[in-house]
Amino acid sequence: xxxxxxxxxxxxxxxxxxxxxxxxxxxxxxxxxxxxxxxxxxxxxxxxxxxxxxxxxxxxxxxxxxxxxxxxxxxxxxxxxxxxxxxxxxxxxxxxxxxxxxxxxxxxxxxxxxxxxxxxxxxxxxxxxxxxxxxxxxxxxxxxxxxxxxxxxxxxxxxxxxxxxxxxxxxxxxxxxxxxxxxxxxxxxxxxxxxxxxxxxxxxxxxxxxxxxxxxxxxxxxxxxxxxxxxxxxxxxxx
Length: 239
Fold this sequence. Notes:
Shape: globular
Structural class: alpha+beta
Helix content: 10-25%
Distance between the termini: 47 Å
Strand order of the largest sheet: 6-11-10-9-8-7-12
Number of strands: 12
Low-confidence stretches: 229-239
CATH class of the largest domain: Alpha Beta
Number of helices: 5
Number of domains: 2
CATH architecture of the largest domain: 2-Layer Sandwich
CATH superfamily of the largest domain: START domain
Strand content: 25-35%
Largest sheet: 7 strands, antiparallel
């Protein structure tokens, strides 16, 4: 049976309402912390467009009745900061896993934190975005072992095949996510076995634009090696 759901989030952001609007309502802005997409204010999917205060997007209804709505409410605060209130709601059809809401809620916590980190450390810098998946579902414990006994604030080094060594600070750490911030990157590892998907890595790079295909293949190679103890020499990551 189809069911309604609603996820509510609130976060204080180190940016003015106008800067937050640029980050959530423009293609380059949303690519810099979420993923590449274009937002057309004239699209029928955009049901509220009130810069820099409110943006609401609703997806068309699928055959099983599934639909999603994403509402962003921005409120300015003293000192050039803002509060973003975000609501993801909708209807899920019969085929959606019972784990969806919990996994999605945790995912939004991570992405909104990434938005704050982007605005704090990389605001206005264009991003190259890539994502890659592990070969199969599972292996999160192996990945954690490969990275070492990390804690928030620890320095982490990743030798990415065919690319420059990545050195940065662990800026996000939960049961299902690991985040790394380097001088030019926000990198996030996602554990997604609860919804039947393999581990993924997302990489927002704010330096010189990278070759997306080559960067993706580098991350696939690293994940494959990190999850197979027989290939320890293929790539390395250490504190």
